[in-house]
User: Fold these one by one.
Assistant:
Number 1:
Amino acid sequence: MTVVTRDAVTPAAFGVPETESQRSTKTPAMAAVDLVEEFPRKTKEPVRALQPLTDRGSREGARAMTMDAEFYSRVAERFGGYFSDARSTDVFADGRPDAVFDELVTALGAPHARLLDVGCADGRSLLRISRAYGAVIGIDLSPSMLECAERFRAESGLEHVTFELCDAARTGLPDGYVAVVTSRRGPLIAHEFERVLRPGGAVVYMGIGEQDARELKETFGRGQNFDSWNSRPLSEGIAQELSDAGLVVTRNQTFHFEEFYHSAGDLDTFLQQVPIVDNYDPAADKEAFDRYVAAVTVDQGVRLSRHWFIVQAQKPAAVEPSPS
Ligand SMILES: C[S@@+](CC[C@H](N)C(=O)[O-])C[C@H]1O[C@@H](n2cnc3c(N)ncnc32)[C@H](O)[C@@H]1O
């Protein structure tokens, strides 16, 4: 079992990815110090303007600027990136999904391999694993998240990583261009992923399961994938989409874990930074919020039960014609 305390710093830091065993030998305080050193908080600075959208579907990209991307842009503008200032102690009975994801994607890397990450948000999760690849591109539909990503990239000095405003459905990349496509709680566009992958290449996708924060959503009467708890597991649907696109699913791993927020205020902060409960409003939702906190507060804190999954798939290698 892994226990990690999030103490007003982001869990995502670039550099050498941590393995599960390394993570579990660190005290929470040590982990927090690492992160603070790697991501010193800075006063807001003007951010280099992003290149305009490339001809890879600029109009489509703009049109596809969904409510989703608008939500993430608001988060980036208000909080300076995609991370939570909320303090919690997280207990991972099935392993820590982000650490497992990092290990899988790092193991697929090679000095000349190209990695495409879709829905990269503020880019820190991508920067953390990027050293395993020769060239890395992160795409997202939120300009504000990408401004944060470019700032973190510049701080990291990682010159082989680029960020672009681009729709995952229309990357415009050549066929067979990348060795690996990743999406960490980002979009899944199976046919586009299959197209840009080279034969033998892999997709690694991390998603949110149907049981995620169920008790919270039931209390609020709404939320991401509301009322899908008794339907087909969402990971199966993702695996099916990848397989329908011609990929071979090699992994479907489930992670149930618990987050214990140190106070009701920490949970409130967290809910403002994520889309778990759509349009969460501390004033309008106060009654439901208080009811939830009263029902789930235990000695360790205010409990939030999470359910994530990782699905991995491979594009079949090209078959050499047999000599006649
Ligand atoms: C949950 S966040 C991803 C977090 C990030 N992968 C990480 O590990 O920290 C989802 C991101 O996907 C982006 N997104 C949603 N639809 C997209 C699309 N069609 N193309 C590219 N990015 C998209 C959103 O703007 C948002 O930044």
Number 2:
Amino acid sequence: MNIGIIGHKKPDLDATVAAIAYAYHLANCNHHDSNDIVALIADPINKETNYVLSRFNVEEPNVLDANIAQNIDKYILVDHNEESQRSELIENDAIVEVVDHHKVNVNIPHPINMTVRTWGSTTTVIYDMMKKEDVTPSQQLAAIMLCAILSDTIGLKSSLTTPIDVKFANELKQLASIEDLDRLTKDIFKAKSDVSGLSSKELVLKDYKIFDFAGEKVLINQIETTEPENIENQKGGLIEAMQAVKTEQNIDLFFCIVTDILNMRSDVIVTNHDEAEITKRAFTDTVEKQDLIYDIGNRVSRKKEIAPFIEKAVEYGK
Ligand SMILES: [Mn+2]
């Protein structure tokens, strides 16, 4: 029996590291034969993840494809639970467990194990599970787990950060023998902000999630960057790319969030008047920065401060 552990489509650092860390955990806590457990990703990794895995010499997981799927009997979902964020190769029947820190929206017709916490990263949840079973991550694994927590919590500064995230980050820092947390955070931010060579289409799909809000297919992309002006200067091309994606993927509403990770604030780019109206209804204090770009102030967390408000605004219009 083979178990695949896998994060959401368009994996970020947390989705990738959570799969690697949970595979390590299950292989080391004696409940499983390690040969049966494999960490996977749903799509190729991004530049930030590539930077972190290369820096700490950790092998990148395989991308789940039809060949690999033939050998997997069961799946554990990490860092996601909604069907719209799941690889299409995963059958409902094969899902046995979820470890996550997002809102829950699953309808699986059999009992599953779920470990969901309101903490800053899925990696934080997995480290807690490791501690409870006396599993200690290797130095390399501790380093990438620390990076995943720093990335998902924007350097432990996002409003989603809990005292548990801070405590565990410090423990992992010790295990990884990392001296300078600020330096590491800056290195991760730099890799996260590297948009060189990305087309407009790649930018507007850099870190996206698709939601079903009141029957509307809503795409929310987030570009985390230290140089938001470099992104917004390309507005024309970005909006054109957003319109093309809407047509290709039958998206009803598209919101592209540009988050300034140094100043902890965001703007929203939209493609039309309808999306602009929803943005204004969702964030009542929003300011129109330029045509089709709205300043939404110090909101940086898609899952907590952005998506729920867009959802309410979409429902209101129904
Ligand atoms: Mn996450």
